[in-house]
Amino acid sequence: MELYDAIFYRKSTRKYSNKKVKEGLLEEVKNACSQITYLNKELDIKAHVVDRGHLVHFLMGKKCKVKAPHYIIVTSNKGNDYLQNIGFAMEEVVLKLTTLGLATCWLECNIKREDILEFVQLKDSDEEKNDTIVESEEKNEESKNVNLEQPYSIIAFGYPDEDEKLFRTNKDVDRKRISHVCRKLDKNLEKIVEALRWAPSVKNSQPWILYNNSNMVHLYEEKQKKNIKDNKIGMGIALRHFDIACNKFGLEVDYSKIDVKKRMAKEYYITATLK
């Protein structure tokens, strides 16, 4: 199964078997996590595989609604579009796990940096980068907090419970129609946007909306009252689906921020220029 196919077969799994993933397969997961890619190269996003799931169960307590044998804790420093970049980076991993026959589920992250220091290796700070020297102690502290790795997302994975199916079987997915997702869409891009609209989002909010102008697709986020953090991660997930579909159909694409029209109740995210 290719990543593109996994977009349509993968589903969020909330009930897991206690059976642990075999060591060889777990190594493949760790390898996928070590090779993540994202757009903002100034960020330092890392995916930490926690093979002892009970550690996450303990930290999350009653808020741990999905108990799996293993988790991936995603950390990052803060920077431009860091949450969107987390979604973009980790959705590729999630889809790779789908191709490996593993179930996955994106989870809200309610744990803190200090909670995971005993079993996840994090930098004390990004002082070794020393790109600039800040004289003010106040600015130094602010800079340190920005560059500090913090946990922002958790992904559960493992084998589904015996009552759970691994793959989606119903192709009538509960998603907005393409005509609601993209305005004035070029027919040649329908397959690309079809992959994007299958992206998972918190409470299935589907906050993305696209505007197609010639060879450019402008991606906006529809503003929501709640779940701002997770919606932004969802925007990155959607963009990864778009990117995988472009790859599948041989379309070269560049991503950039440009001056675009402001739209009511929508926040501009990024523009994809198709070659």
Notable features of this structure?
single chain, 275 residues, alpha+beta, NADH Oxidase, 2 domains, five-stranded mixed beta sheet, four-stranded antiparallel beta sheet, 9 helices, 9 strands, globular
Count of individual helical segments: 9
- Give the biggest beta sheet: 5 strands, mixed
CATH superfamily of the largest domain: NADH Oxidase
CATH hierarchy class name of the largest domain = Alpha Beta
The secondary structure category is: alpha+beta
What distance separates the N and C termini?
A: 27 Å
Strand content: 15-25%
The ordered string of helix (H) and strand (E) elements is HHEHEHEHHEHEHEEHEE
Percent of residues in helices: 25-40%
CATH architecture of the largest domain: 3-Layer(aba) Sandwich
Mind explaining what this structure looks like?
By secondary structure, the protein is α+β, with helices and mostly antiparallel strands. It folds into 2 domains: 3-158, NADH Oxidase (3-Layer(aba) Sandwich), CATH 3.40.109; 178-274, NADH Oxidase (3-Layer(aba) Sandwich), CATH 3.40.109. It has helices at residues 3-9, 23-33, 53-60, 82-99, 113-116, 137-147, 178-181, 190-197, 228-248; strands spanning 46-50, 70-76, 103-107, 150-158, 182-183, 208-213, 216-222, 253-256, 266-274. The longest helix is centred in the C-terminal third of the chain and has 21 residues, at 228-248. The protein is globular and about 50 Å long.
